[in-house]
Amino acid sequence: MGAGSRVSARGAPSCRRLLLCRSVWAGPACRAGAPSVAAEARPSRVLPFEAIPRSGPNAWLQLFRFWRANSFPHLHLIMQRNFQRLGPIYRETVGTHSSVNVLLPRDAAQLFHSEGTYPRRMGIDSWIAHRVLRNHKCGVFLLNGEDWRADRLVLNKEVISPAGTLKFLPFLNTVAEDFVDFMHRRVRKNTRRLLTVDLHHDLFRFTLEASSYAFYGERLGLLEDTPSRESQGFIQALETMLQTTLPLLFLPPGIMRWVNPRLWHDHMDAWDTIFQHADKCIQNIYQEFCLGKPRKYSGVMAELLLNAELPLDSIKANMTEFTAGGVDTTAMPLLFTLFELARNPHVQTALREEIKAAEAPGPKELSKLLNSLPLLKATIKETLRLYPVGITVQRYPTQDVVIQNYCVPAGTLCQVGLYAMGRSQEVFRDPEVYNPRRWLGKEDNNFKALAFGFGARQCIGRRLAEAEMTLFLFHMLRNFKIDTVSKADIKTVFGFILMPEKPPLLTFRPID
Ligand code: O4T
Question: Which of these, 127, 128, 132, 58, lies nearest to 97 by C-alpha position?
Answer without folding.
Answer: 58
